[in-house]
Predict the 3D structure of the following.
Amino acid sequence: MNIQAPFGFVTGCHAGDKFMVQATLASMRHYCPTVPICLVVDGIFDVADLAKEYGLVVLRVPDLPSAEMRKLIGGNYRAKLAAMWEGPFEFYVWLDSDAIVWGDFTPQVRRDVDFQIFWSEISIPAGAVEIPSWLPHFYFDPLKLQQFDAAFDWRGWPYFVSGAFACRRNALSFQRWAEIEAWEREVPGMFAWGEMGMLNYLVHALVQRGELRTTCSDLQHVWPHHGIGELEQDCLGAGWHFPAKIARPRVAHFCGRKPFLFDRKAYSRPFTIARLEHHRRQSGNIGAWLKTISEDRRVLAQKIQRRLRPKT
């Protein structure tokens, strides 16, 4: 796909999470109404309603010109990478479908770098000796990685959740990515959690070699890590509508337990607000609640059916 704008938002969906990406799109359009949006669609299901509602540029994984690329990223978490190699924007902000724009943070997006990490904490001190157990669980196994990149130092980096970041198109080439995928095939279990481990390694390795310009910014709020206090404070007085003022604009990412109304262990209020905002555009307030509850009922029914399905 040819470049159509210097900057934009990108999100994506599979058929099963289309109802969630509606909230992501509604938040983008509410807080940043003039920023163009691309939707990466992994599959052949219909998204004409969303394209019309939000004026989307649709990028379908099955339509990518490279057969190798289609095979590698189709039907899995790597589908988001389509925007890096074939997306319509020179520089873009990526959001997973369980994340929302929470206030206009675009003035903080750094387009003078190649990759902006939406995380600011140095996860492992530069002088660490032992490999923390969470590193191979969530990202990669440094001992296995040494077989292919003995010079890489796994210490002193901000290991980030890849559900939100900003990136220049082709900042990480497909050829480099395919090489790392080959490493994983040779030594299974080297990388973890979909594309997250590979993306973290490649970004930090290229920085270490002086081949990538990055910066770190505190622009992603993951509630299991950061808590819910700030988000709740933002919501005071807004009811079930987007707050007019956000104290610290950023991305609110609801990873882990998904933000469903029926899950009492999940925090969902800001995401539910975004879901309601989407449905209000067509159905009004009561209709928005009914549609949101209906979506949750379908998800709950599917979960129950999977649990009751006989094991083979």
Remarks:
- The mean pLDDT is 95.
